[in-house]
Amino acid sequence: MESRYAETTPPERMATPERARRCGDWLRRWLFAAWVCACAGVAGYLVKQQSWGWLATRFLNERVIEYIGGTGYVLFDAEELARNYWRTARLDKVDPAPYRDYLRTLAERRQPVPATPRPRKHVVYVQMESADGLLIGARWEGRPAMPFLESLAREQVYLPNVIDNTAGGRTNDALVLVQTALVPLRSSPVYVSQPLDKVPSLPKALKAAGYHTWLMNGYFGAFGRSRLAQQALGYDDGFFSEELDTSEKLGWGVSDRSVLHQAAQRLIAAKQPTFAHVILLTNHHPYVYVREHLGLPPAGIVADYMQSVRYMDESIAGFFGELKAAGVLDNCIVAIFGDHDSSITAQLERELQVGPARVMSDTVPLIVAGLPEAPRRIEAVAGLQDVPVIVLEALGLPVPPTFTGNGLGGGGRTVAAMYGALEVTPQGLGASPMPVDQETLTLLALHYPEKLLAP
To answer: CATH 3.40.720.10: which residues of the chain?
Structure first.
């Protein structure tokens, strides 16, 4: 007897190998989507637990993988991807008016653009890897930790209370701060998670003023999307290990001494005002590269670190010496800053003779040479987002409305991705309320800067 199903089902609806294959594909996609959603949910829950909270900083991907395994890392990344998509998708529904008001309040603290144009000096960023703020003025084995920078801090404009405003992106977060004057996102490195072609930046502002802009980094241009990011941010050229003389390598890539020498030669040969952003890498965790290069025996991470930062200090001194000998230094504004702390700050404070107290331990050095205000020590709380504002004010150029940093005269308060708004009160350093959501402001400036520029 034939089945009822066979009597009523058209031939084209009958099960076939092709139909079975399609059903299997659909089922696999559905199961994969369900797995990703479940992973995201589990990761979101785990990250909120005390033992998993540190993952939100994304300090080192290798450490995350070591702690929770490859599958756990995928779970965490899936949760972050979903959160980032959700934040971006709702941006077009955000009312930009409060954000424009907030940015106008910041702009009112800055110097007005002078009626008479100022001389177009070269602008140089020297970005130091993992430099702690306590190094300036500290002593190790009876000697200055960084003797050249210590003397430079006395002679130039020095800000000893620059809070480490980076988050999970660390070095890339510092780049966002000094290039766009925006506070980075707490857990998603902006370089790899957001578009950069629309956002106003220091390279774009200087390029519009007639500058040639370039970035130099002794590592591979593909790492962390560095080459694509520098192009999107407005640099005319990017010089990475593929374009540099790599005969002298130390640690992660081309040595600090060699990178700074190659940068000095380009500045000396420049035919127009130049913005040169030089990124140093030798002083990278685990800080053993200089000691191993010198053939010295292990003596602990603090000793390794101090050997490494002394090498970095000597390399910067050589850079200044080259520019001075060529008669170029007096035509430069040079901002020297640490990208983020060393992550061994507490150990350094125990083993070094530390100089004057800072408002908090988590600081980075910032010295700006070539300003008319020198010598000057500014104790006010500051952040790396202040650097591009200081540069543009010194040149008498307009500051883009999306910049959130302060100039030399408008400090005393900074915003950090991991702490929020910080300022010194009679009770000490404390958090103060923000009139807008900082992450939303950064995302608006990245995706819809025109909404923040409208009157």
So the answer is: 115-453
The amino acid sitting at 343 is S
Give the Cα separation of 399 and 103 in Å (integer): 11
**Tens-place pLDDT, residues 4-33:** 333 344 444 444 656 655 666 566 556 655
Distance from C-alpha of 455 to C-alpha of 453, rounded to nearest angstrom: 7
What homologous superfamily is domain 115-453 in, according to CATH? Alkaline Phosphatase, subunit A (3.40.720.10)
401 is written with which tokens?
A: 């409305």
Say how far apart CA 234 and CA 388 lie, in whole Å.
Answer: 14
pTM for this structure? 0.83
Q: How is 375-418 classified by DSSP, letter by letter?
A: SEE--S-EETTHHHHHHHHHHT-PPPTT-----TTS-SEEEETT
pLDDT at 35: 54
Q: In the 3-class helix/strand/coil scheme, how is 66-116 assigned residue by residue?
A: HHHHHHHHHHHHHHHHHHHHHHHHCHHHCCCHHHHHHHHHHHCCCCCCCCC
Backbone angles phi and psi of 299, in degrees to 5: -140, 15
Query: Which residues, 6 or more positions from 263, have their beta carbon under 8 angstroms from its beta carbon?
Result: 124, 216, 276, 278, 319
The rounded distance, in Å, linking the Cα atoms of 52 and 44 is 10
